[in-house]
Design brief:
By secondary structure, this protein is mainly β. The protein is about 0% helix and about 40% strand.
């Protein structure tokens, strides 16, 4: 899930427990997407960046910068 609390979260759908909290953006997170191999998560934010995260550990792997305004959506191209 993506939130205006500047984070994205991954949930266990059976238990409802939070599995990961991806915090690192400095503004609203509008969108989150898993890669086709479930290795990466991308997040789109009002801080004008895209975050790339490890889907296993929640570690931020890279921040993609260059937009001059909000990034509203992210998705991965099929492999």
């Amino acid at each position: 899930t993506a939130s205006d609390d500047k984070s994205a979260r991954v949930w266990d759908v059976e238990s409802g427990d939070k599995v990961l909290c991806l915090g690192g953006h400095t503004s609203h997170v509008w969108s989150a997407s898993f890669s086709s191999g479930d290795q990466l998560i991308a997040t789109a934010s009002s801080d004008n960046t895209v975050g790339l995260w490890s889907a296993q550990t929640g570690d931020e792997l890279r921040t993609l910068e260059g937009h001059k305004s909000d990034v509203f959506s992210v998705c991965f191209s099929p492999e």
